[in-house]
Specification:
This protein is mostly helical and 118 residues long. The protein has one domain: HPT domain (Four Helix Bundle (Hemerythrin (Met), subunit A)). It has five helices and no strands. It is elongated, with a radius of gyration of 15 Å. The termini are close together.
């Protein structure tokens, strides 16, 4: 059995338990949505950082945090939450902070997908 470093499979097991016969199809659909929607969110986050649209960045970070948490992609959720928390608390951060966090998300995403699909 593989050791997961970026994903907590208990979230998907919880979905399976509560969705009954439709559980596997539901998880498959959620994974497909996550895999297809996340690159667009990451791209939009880059645009928001580049244009200093911090309100929009906060919304994208919240969206990514929520979708990641629902699938147990806790590392993606953690990094997204760190962006959202800084913006919600109106803490002054250099733009490099957000660029570094976005780079981290871009690196985590393919690893996360790989773990989610196992």
């Amino acid at each position: 059995m593989s050791e997961f470093k970026h994903v907590d499979k208990s979230a998907m097991l919880h979905l399976l338990e509560h969705a009954g016969d439709a559980g596997k199809d539901l998880i498959k659909s959620l994974l497909q949505l996550y895999e297809s929607n996340t690159p667009g969110i990451l791209s939009k986050m880059k645009e928001d950082i580049d244009s200093s649209s911090m309100g929009d960045l906060c919304q994208q970070a919240h969206s990514l945090k929520s979708s990641s948490m629902s699938l147990g992609a806790f590392k993606m959720a953690e990094v997204s939450a760190s962006i959202e928390n800084v913006l919600m608390k109106k803490q002054n951060r250099e733009i490099e902070f957000f660029q570094e966090k976005l780079n981290e998300l871009n690196q985590l995403f393919p690893i996360t997908i790989e773990e989610l699909e196992q």
